[in-house]
Amino acid sequence: MKLENGEYLGKNNRTFHVDGLIINKTSYHEKVFEGWHFHQNNHLSFILEGGNREYRKQTDQVLRPGNMVFYPGGEWHRNSHTQHPSLNINLEIEDHFLQHYEASFTAGPHNAFKALDNLHQSFSPAHNPLFHTQAKLTALRIYHDCQVADQHSSLSVHQQLLSLLQTAGTREKTDRQLFGGRVDKVIELLHDRWNEHISLQDLSTVTALHPVTVSRHFTAYFDCSLGEYMRRIRVERSLLLVRQPTLSLTEIAYQCGFFDQSHFIRAFKAQTGFLPKAFRKF
Known about the structure:
The protein is an alpha+beta fold and 282 residues long. The protein folds into 3 domains: 2-173, Sandwich (Jelly Rolls); 175-223; 235-282, Arc Repressor Mutant, subunit A (Orthogonal Bundle). It is 43% helix and 19% strand. The protein contains 11 helices and 10 strands. It has helices at residues 95-100, 116-122, 129-148, 153-170, 183-192, 200-207, 211-222, 226-242, 249-255, 261-272, 276-280; strands spanning 2-3, 11-17, 21-28, 38-39, 42-49, 52-56, 59-63, 68-71, 77-80, 86-93. The strands form 3 sheets. The chain has a 5-stranded antiparallel sheet. A hairpin with a 3-residue loop joins β2 and β3. The radius of gyration is 19 Å and the shape is globular.
């Protein structure tokens, strides 16, 4: 089965068309087709609720809330044991979007994006937690911008998606140049101790570099300060907690390492575009 532009096996609750991108929220409340199928376009799916078991050529995996996955256009796959309800945000990339920006997902000397055979790995939290965190927050900001739908929304959505995909293709090139070749150690520390206070001295210890050098390398690699990146991780970790109506925002704020609820709300809005209560009802 071939699924055309913006078509999914579940019910599309809302769909936005943004000059070559199709953004929608898809829900699953009853059993759907479980056979092999493919989508016309490349797309990213962020699973907010539910999940399923996914089968692709020679691989299978269980998809859970918080997972973000990439599907190349034309790749056969099937899904079974879908939980009800399930809810996904899908970002679909039409060919003419890629053509407009002279980009593709195939290997080549002038390609701005990572090739398809490697892009899958970027969406693995174990392989690339930095990119995985950024991808989920970007998906939410894009959907929020589509809801706002003002004169700047289209430009904002395009810029955010291009930036995300380019990050997947270029970040590895700088690994050997920054942090004394210990980028993986830095990322591991930040994501393992995400709800603790991390200092430049902590990063200095794992990189064997002076804190001033660490600060300069951090900004060059992460495109933000250490404090901003830690807020980004904490907000990403809070996404599934916010979806649980039994937890108060104060409880979530403290669990995720924020000083209080007001600090958490401001950080959540800045990183996702949504207020926590609005995202809970999403």
